[in-house]
Amino acid sequence: MDIKGKIYKDFLHRMDRFKIQNGPDKIKNQHNKGKLHARERIALLFDKDSFEELDAFVTSATPDTGFGKIDEAFGDGVVIGHGRVNGRLVYAYSQDFTVMGGSLGTVHAKKIMKVQELALRVGAPIIGLIDSGGARIQEGVASLSGYASIFHRNIQASGIIPQISVILGPAAGGAVYSPALTDFIFMAKNTSHMFVTGPDVVKEVLNEEVTFDELGGAEIHAKKSGVANFIYEDEENAIIGVKKLLSFFPSNNLENPPFIEKRDKKDKNTDKLISVVPDDPNKPYDVKKVIELLIDKDTFFEVSEHFAPSLVIGFARLNGKAIGIVANQPKVLAGVLDINSSLKGARFIRFCDCFNIPILTLEDVPGFLPGLDQEHNGIIKHGAKLLFAYSEATVPKVTVILRKAYGGAFCVMNSKNLGGDYNFAWPTAEIAVMGPEGAVSILNKRELQKAEDPIQLKKEFATKYRQEIANPYIADENGYIDEVIDPADTRKKLITAFESLENKHIEQPSRKHGNIPL
Ligand code: HXC
What we know:
Bound molecules: hexanoyl-coenzyme A
CATH topology of the largest domain: 2-enoyl-CoA Hydratase, Chain A, domain 1
Radius of gyration: 27 Å
CATH class of the largest domain: Alpha Beta
Structural class: alpha/beta
């Protein structure tokens, strides 16, 4: 081709149009809202110069119906492609709010489907950077069908490749459901909002005044609905968080998570582990301290930190290998299991199981939360989800009972009979049908009714119960746990336990799928 020729000049002209398509004003508007442009986000996510864009020159198929302005921009409001994140292949799409509010029409939808299909075909994670007003109103049912096709591909890919959604502006209407079908959702404070129907519709239908933040801001979704797993101050930090999260995952369900060579000593923190759990069973402590002492230094990456905090979940490294941790948090409601913590734990366990990430359970739980609210809202079916998820998981599963393991909660938290591979207990463990106070109120009811000082007598019975029934040795002697261990040895024991389980393989009888109590 003659580089001075007409054909080449036409090509350069198209490239120029492409470069200025969003115009400095539109990008400035985006910046004024505290948001980055779709391409700036892509640049932050991928290793330098590694991103290869696809379908950059396609244009919108939106018909001009006289309603709303049609942007003729190349790309139809979404940037798609693949590149390297810390050297590993990742697919992504990034919605461009400067083009018709990042709304989703047919061409936009087809582009997203293209990367969904490619990512699944090659077995690489996919990340959606979302900034969208939802279904493109001018395209009507074609937009709706585009969304449904994206949802279908999300579901087809679920459990095969990791899928992450990062909400960096509005995610309105249909824009919320694709993220909801992915594995993890990130949000940026102040600038990102997720809602099925916006404040205007809420006002119209229910006559209620709500702000965007109250309805679907990052903090609401992180603390109350549990929809967002991670929230960050701004977009830059959210994207750094995404990269960190990816470092724990294999690229697909047939691979193992990446191994990191840099490791701590096997027997570190032995003295500190001995004193971390208080002798007094009613005294709270922070289970995150136990986690930090057990794992490789500074590797804990907590998931859903602000939702249902009586259960702590997150990824970490143990001797260089990725693990998932599920731990009751005695600092919050004594570590009780309730509806939200059951849902939180169950979903996390299922993710770990999909992607070959071994699970460590740290147990200190007084039981399920009693009361009308919990019973009426379905603690039975929601608690059953946690049971189901633990039992169904075939990845290596190791439990350490730190202190309380009472009642149904003992069974649920990866007990041996539920399929736990190794179940250890510290000498401080209290394993029984229920806590001492509750138990002696039933067993010694008559003596207590007749006693001159029932409070003192109850204390005495409780101490006796703790010594004779609620201890780890009965469970050990009868094989309900594998071993009572010295807390000082826990890290070493866990490393050896997970190493021994590396080739664990369980064949399941063929079935379409189980029927988890949804
Ligand atoms: C077409 C849209 C659009 C949409 C926004 N725009 N949403 N165009 N279809 N869904 C356009 C606007 O007309 C405007 O165009 C530009 O994008 C920027 O929008 P603004 O409103 O000026 O921006 P802002 O004030 O930041 O508000 C953003 C917003 C608001 C909160 C997202 O635009 C909004 O409420 N949009 C509608 C949200 C919604 O209800 N979507 C449909 C959901 S129904 P100009 O030309 O002025 O720049 C749905 C069904 C799917 O998605 C169900 C599947 C399960």
